[in-house]
Automatic annotation (TrEMBL):
The keyword ATP-binding applies. Belongs to the GatC family. The lineage of its organism: Bacteria, Pseudomonadati, Pseudomonadota, Alphaproteobacteria, Rhodobacterales. Keywords: ATP-binding, Ligase, Nucleotide-binding, Protein biosynthesis, Transferase. This is Aspartyl/glutamyl-tRNA(Asn/Gln) amidotransferase subunit C. Its EC number is 6.3.5.-. GO terms for molecular function: ATP binding; glutaminyl-tRNA synthase (glutamine-hydrolyzing) activity; transferase activity. It catalyses: L-glutamyl-tRNA(Gln) + L-glutamine + ATP + H2O = L-glutaminyl-tRNA(Gln) + L-glutamate + ADP + phosphate + H(+); L-aspartyl-tRNA(Asn) + L-glutamine + ATP + H2O = L-asparaginyl-tRNA(Asn) + L-glutamate + ADP + phosphate + 2 H(+). The keyword Nucleus does not apply. Heterotrimer of A, B and C subunits.
Length: 96
């Protein structure tokens, strides 16, 4: 990978919506270059057959039961509505 120049660093900062003073562009370009170099090193690692993981400790994340429910909250939710009709929120018509 080629080195990131100041112009590319400026474009990255602009796309990221980060205000970077002109004097700090060389440091940003250097940091971005090091990050890309590290990513290239990671690409060289053979990960064939390695399971993806969410944590460095071998633990299973707690999961809730996957069940379909309507929540049975319709009356409680509609009680907060300024206008409800036939089990739905009623809103003013905005398109003719």
């Amino acid at each position: 990978m080629s080195e990131i120049d100041n112009e590319t660093a400026r474009k990255v900062a602009k796309l990221s919506r980060i205000a970077v003073p002109e004097s700090e562009l060389p440091a940003l370009a250097s940091d971005l270059s090091r990050i890309l170099t590290f990513m290239e090193e990671l690409n060289e690692v053979d990960v064939e057959g390695v399971e993806p993981m969410t944590s460095v400790t071998p633990m299973r994340l707690p999961r809730r039961k996957d069940g379909v429910t309507d929540g049975d909250y319709q009356n409680r939710i509609l009680s907060n509505a300024p206008d409800a009709r036939e089990g739905f929120f009623a809103v003013p018509k905005v398109v003719e």
